[in-house]
Predict the structure.
Amino acid sequence: DTGVSQDPRHKITKRGQNVTFRCDPISEHNRLYWYRQTLGQGPEFLTYFQNEAQLEKSRLLSDRFSAERPKGSFSTLEIQRTEQGDSAMYLCASGRSGGHTGELFFGEGSRLTVL
Amino acid sequence: DAKTTQPPSMDCAEGRAANLPCNHSTISGNEYVYWYRQIHSQGPQYIIHGLKNNETNEMASLIITEDRKSSTLILPHATLRDTAVYYCIVRALEYGNKLVFGAGTILRVKS
């Protein structure tokens, strides 16, 4: 257990529905990252927050995707009008800014299946 | 961030040392080498990192060549639980610090 928790762990939905994932990072970590991983590939960066500010978004994050971190603590990732291509594992990671900040702590992920 | 090249898969006998290579020939002077691993159905886990000196911790050793163009992760006594995908990542400590993952090396430890 890394201390980063994600919910739900598994989600099955029908195409066109909206889904939301939640990530609770390690409490003293001010940086939070979202990644997406499909079978056989390494995780792909989606976006990251420092405190409540969203500082970078990947081109992978289409208009149907939105992420928030309203109070600089937990974060949500919402996917609207899901498509079958959204089926993937969504990983959250947290880390600390300042000094040597290389280590990120990952949650176990939320697996999305779009039917 | 510099790109890395890793073999797609490797096998290792249980109890033997596992040596996982990584090429990063375009690494810049301010970029560190990081290793993470991902066991099936789990998130990636930090293993070790280094700049130019060799590093060792309780999990592994990292050997970086003098020209820094390649490195080797060494698991000294591999166990079945070390079967995982191992990712070599190079990045600078700039604002953001996101990790850019490649496909990694699938290490299979066999009894």
About this structure: Residues 51 and 72 of chain A are 4 Å apart (CA to CA). Chain A has no helices and eleven strands. The radius of gyration of chain A is 13 Å. Chain A has a mean pLDDT of 93.
